[in-house]
Design a protein that fits this description.
Length: 360
Amino acid sequence: MAESRAPWDVPSAWQPALEAARTGGTLLLIGAVDSGKSTLAAILAGAACEAGRAVAVVDADVGQSSLGPPTCVGMARLHEPIADLANLPAEAIDFVGAPSPTGRLLECVASACAMAAAARSAGADTLVVDTTGLIDGPSARALKAAKIRLLAPDVVVGLQAEDEVEHLLAPYRGRRRPRIVRLRRSRRVKERTREQRAARRQMKLGSYFAGGKVEEITWDNLPIDNSPWTTGEPAPGHVRAHAEERLGCEVLHAERRAAGLFLILDGQADPQGLRSLADGFGGAARAVDAASLRSLLVGLLGEQGETLGLGLLEHIDFGARRLSIYTPADVQRAKGLRLGAVQLARDGAQLGWNQPGATG
């Protein structure tokens, strides 16, 4: 994370943002990777705290999280000024599923909104929302615009070296809300290489999973909220045999739904065979390679859909319909599961990355 020498070593040009924080409301920060957003978030939250505000930080930088593990949006309240967001324990997290917003824009926005709602429910009247360093291209414009529209910030703070975020701020020129505050990034910001950012992410994930244990649970008791898996009825044996003949690989699991057939395979399906199979099942058949599920990062969900913690899906017993999940969280409280996009070792090392739709 970019740092200044001390929490009070603030450029004089940042005073408009400090005044906005002391006034209260919601401030959303936009800036590139390693622009100093996390440090700025801590400084603004501290200023609001000193002004007597009930302050919370929503850390929506899913790749370089300070509050909670990467792949999540985290939330924490302040009771006194801090030098570093990493000094705050996350009070709540919401699992996005990947350490990058690419391919997960909707999830990023939904998680940020969920954590903002959690902060307000906890009594916060001032929110400082940090965002990812994605600032270029149509995905960045869509993501930032959606967050601004749904979080309805009073102030958007653009932190930049030159004019790299102007294209994200320009649509709000002339509007009464949000008010735009432009800041120059501090010269004290420490930039990191891609490798250093990846190493930090692995360290944080490895630290999160340290001390976990393997828990086993029947998947009937843990429905999945972002995959067809667990949403249908078991397909009879003759359907599985027919699918194996068409697809050229073993069918480990099959479900029938009104929308068609869902399969988990030991291998990749022949595309032509899958299209042929779909013709007999309502015109739709989806197949997932079981390899994409091994060591998959998952979110354990509570009874209200909140994220209780993260886990690694280490083994699936398709016959017994049982999942083996390595996690530090209490699986017995879980009422649902959300599949992520990355496959990880217990030490946080990335083993693989699934493209959108790979797990159903």
